[in-house]
Amino acid sequence: MSTATVNPDFATAISNYDPVLGFEVHVELSTNSKMFCGCPTDFGAAPNTHVCPTCVGLPGSLPVVNEAAVEATIKIGLALNCDIAEWCRFARKNYFYPDMPKDYQISQYDEPLCSNGYLDVDVVDEAGEHRTVRVEIERVHMEEDTGKLLHTGGDTGRIHGADYSLVDYNRAGVPLIEIVTKTIEGTGALAPEVGKAYVTQLRELVRSLNVSDVRMEQGSLRCDANVSLMPKGASEWGTRTETKNVNSLRSVERAIRSEIIRQAEVLDAGGTITQETRHFHETTGDTTPGREKSDAEDYRYFPEPDLIPIAADPQWVEQLRAALPEAPSLRLGRLQKEWGLSDFDMLAVVSSGAVDVVVATVDAGADQAAARKWWLGELTRIANSEGVELEALAITPTQVARVVALVEDGSLNDKLARKVIEGVLAGEGEPDDVVAARGLAVVSDDGPLIAAIDEAIAANPDVVEKIAGGKPQAAGVIVGSVMKATRGQADAGRVRELLFEKLGVDA
Amino acid sequence: MSATTGAMHLTRRSATELATAIAAGEVTAREVTDEHLARIDAVDGSIHAFLHVDYEGARAQADAVDAKRAAGGPLGPLAGVPVALKDVFTQKGVPTTAGSRILEGWRPPYDSTVVSRLRDADCVILGKTNMDEFAMGSSTEHSGYGPTHNPWDTDRIPGGSGGGSAAAVAAFEAPLAIGTDTGGSIRQPASVTGTVGVKPTYGGVSRFGLIALASSLDQAGPCARSVMDAALLHQALAGHDPKDSTSLDLEVPDVVAAAKRADVRGMRIGLVSQLSGNGYQPGVRQRFDEAVEILTNLGAEPVEVSCPNFEYALAAYYLILPSEASSNLARFDGMRFGIRVGDDGDANVEEVMSATRAAGFGDEVKRRIMLGTYALSSGYYDAYYGQAQKVRTLIARDFDAAFSEVDVLLSPTAPTTAFKLGEKLDDPLAMYLNDVATIPVNLAGNAAMSLPIGLAPEDGLPVGLQIMAPSMADDRLYNVGAALETALRDKWGHLLIEEAPAL
User: Which of B111, B331, B384 is the best substitution to test chain A (most A C-beta atoms within 10 A)?
Assistant: First the structure.
């Protein structure tokens, strides 16, 4: 949930211009094999080990379509309310680049597999009112990913100025789907939030279909945000920029906001916007120009002659439609009702990307309020500082549920629970292992406490006298010494009770 | 023939005879291979059919066949028979250039499906044959490694692009060879070298491992000295391959049975009016008419057939082919395989790609890449590539209409006999016209064969007849071809190739 304080530059920009958005989201499918060959798709293997003649484009090699990728794309299309083409083809997108083994990419052009859909996304406006914005989907199409370039030398990590570049073709040919929106107008000051909500809810949707990891930090979900401004009251769109390298949900919002401000400043100064690709920088929160992108760029698309057309059997498509899981929007409504949350509280869960982990924690026996508290609080803080998604943290919902249970039965207090979480994240084992190894349990057995109290009484006869003499506030000294003796694991309230009981005074 | 037949005799035997003799133990596969390697050593200096002779690999394959036979293992129908492979197919560890300098030194890490099928059939692959660079040409003069010479007259072209494969078979360097046919590259060389060449139905033989010229047109097929030999090789190559999405998952027509049948009685044979007349050499027309007469005498019924859209075939072909080729050849950029030019530490990646392509590609390749790049450009696509695809549909309809009337269509394979080396090198359009009769079949995707029907009286050079059949009716080619071949052999007392001058 964005609660950014209103940036005065942003407020000025929005008062003068209407932002127009558009998104191209690439999702890497988690099929076992690549789009057009049998190579594995696992992330993180040694460079150029998941390759074969086809995915490095050796002369004579041929592609064959991965049926699982077609099925996953159809599922995404159906979940986005798209029409599924009864007949469509792949096309070649021709351009020379060393990360493209064939110097063309097999993609889809004017015959996408899915088209004309929508996704309704929820945001809260300035007045705290819940609003639903319909984002129309132009198309969902299949393509192959490129290899990965590593530029060595030079200052920018980009190809220009590098001493040399290395290419890893493990990623080349990994199934990629591109989800393209129509232009999104009329969002006004909510544009950054709408952008973030769209990507967040799209991610939830794709995740619910179990067809991709949708990990932004690993690049299995990549978002290009198109932004343009038109003066208030104008009817013609302005020149757009395409911002890449937007690697987290938070960055979607920040990138749009910063680009709106930048464009407004250029236009206010009488300048013009250059149609170009821009790169978002996580650290500074702004964008810098990349490659100029003119409409004249000619990819010489033509139907891929190495592949036969795809004609998805309508009956099969209907079977896939019938087997779709509960739509995330319906699911969210159901969860909100079950948990009894306000719109605001529910959106906080959604926009933190915490829905699945909270549900899993509740399923593992935790109370929803406690589950939300830990995931949206301590764990979100840690995830943000590490720059990863919640799921990427080295703690499972089951482990969080166990921590919650330990707090509820009094074995841990919040402070100790944080240490347990820290231990689990550090790889010290299950929560109970961490409690045992670090000796973190709240001391609840009265025996050791009474012994410690007796020692403290014996050591502080003057204090005992004061308490007995009607100064219960002096008890702090005894309690403090017991807490010290038990290394902070005693329940201070219980120590006080036991002390007064022993001395026969009323607290 | 006897088991004691001498060396010359082994190379002059048919594939069918060699397979039988090896299976019967009359001769070893190793002896057959050695004799062919010796023949290559003796004559290829004047023919230049081969770009690479795989002495060691061939002998090892032959020895393996002999060992298999000794162990009583089941042998394929072509076990131990040597085959020459057009250098456009990948063969693991064996240099593969597609006739281009840009791939000099490249040894593929994998076998094409054609090579796998040859191995499965226990064939012995002798080496890689010369071709026009990336199969672009009709004379083999566009090879990056020098031209191949026609065994009938070494001052003449052997046809192209598969001139090396046709010449190897015609010069008795190999009983069989593999070619590829995108617009006539198996059939036209067969025609001008007095051999048999077949372009199977598109999708009949896998393209996996075939370095693509134009993906929607390329098709691999057999080159041989007789129809039956071609049928045996065709059968060994054909069939569905899951590695090629455009490969047909259909039962392969029984081409060997059809070659044995050789019976045209009651068949209707169509004579395409658009593929005759002006532009065809008189001797070619004369031999063609005689062949039709022979078939008529054998019981076939000739019918005049019109295919009006064939007129546009050449134009459509020279838009579709360069378009696909411009994209298929993009990968030859010096980054991953083949030569790399200009990588001096200062040049950037685009400069190196550009320098590599400038140095590695020949003129004809550059010409077609430019044509194709232009035809696919935004704003021109509909007028060129799009329009050409429509013509393609019209040509396929012409074939459909014709085949509703007749069983096969006939035409001369090429308008002329073999021309002189250099004669058309500076005139691309004249060169392109060689394929005017063969191109329609590639555009429509159906099957065709060229077989020798005699020598043109005016120059004494071989003339080829083209038989065209509907898709997946490849067997008709062999039935009609074998009937005609038998009649001609009865007339001459031998195959036409026996009349080729000694080298």
Answer: B331
